[in-house]
Amino acid sequence: MDERVEPYVMVTVVRRVRPSSAAVGDKAIVTADGKMIGFVGGHCTRELVINQAQECLRTGEKRLLLVTPQPPAHVEEGVTVLPMTCASEGTVELFLEPKHVDPLLIIVGDSPIAHALEEMAPRFAFVPRRIALEKAEDSSSGEPLEILRSQLAAFNNTTAYGVVATMGLYDSEGLLALVHCKLRYLGLVTSPKRWATVSSGLEAAGAPKEFIDFITAPAGLDIGAVGAQEIALSILAQIVERRRRDLNVQWEGQPEKGISETEALSASDDRTTVSQIVVDPVCGMTVDLKKTQFRLELDGTIYGFCCSGCRDRFAKDPKAFLSHT
Hints:
Blueprint: E1 8-17, E2 27-31, E3 36-38, H1 43-59, E4 63-68, E5 79-83, E6 91-99, E7 104-108, H2 112-120, E8 127-131, H3 144-152, E9 160-164, H4 171-177, E10 183-188, H5 192-204, H6 209-214, H7 227-244, H8 261-266, E11 277-279, E12 286-288, E13 294-298, E14 301-305, H9 308-316, H10 318-322
Parallel strand pairs: 4-5, 7-8, 7-9, 9-10
Antiparallel strand pairs: 1-2, 1-6, 2-3, 4-6, 11-12, 13-14
């Protein structure tokens, strides 16, 4: 759970009075969905602890809990006292400590803005996790989308906030990788003009319309930001605004529709590729079709590109580029 940054409450027995069945030092974990793993007392104590743990997750505050059949006349500051309703009438004192209450911020990219977000996020009570093709041991050995998804696998069941800041290198892959995640916010660092191209590429790749509409692009509040630090600040301010105000806005995470790059290539044995070295129809660069991370199939032909920007421009209007080839 720590690796996945999932919120939970660690419960520890710090004192007990017979005939309580718990022992000092006993521990249990209470998950966000109300499940208890471990033992800190019998059925009556268990239900009380789960309810209190849920409250700890909501507030983010630690709690000292005293469960006793005879509440003291004077309750010390910081102690929550609840009646023990079981017939055994034992007393147990527990310490509840919420973990990973701060929300997860998934950052995609290796750009200066991505690094600035990673550095600044903890100051705004977010837990940053940055993924990038550049972090892969060998990014040329697999499809960009699959590489990013493998880095995201630990977070698929965690509700998070997301920002894609690849500066045009693999924006589409970064966004599509997040389609499986539960998200409160998803922003793309881009310009309005480029977003029109990227959104068309997402649609062509089979991304759900609701997912495309959920994306905030360009990401960040309009504060006239200049430079990576200020742009990161504008994005974090927008995320905080979403967190505090738009409580019901969320992407629940859905399987990606449409054919993946891997599936397209595996099904292309009988399709036309003149050679492994091809020309990017957008910028004119030569690329190795086997090694390039950016491909697109059209009318039986696999086209190779130097970057996702060229591929997205091609996907938006193929005829504009094929007429020159």
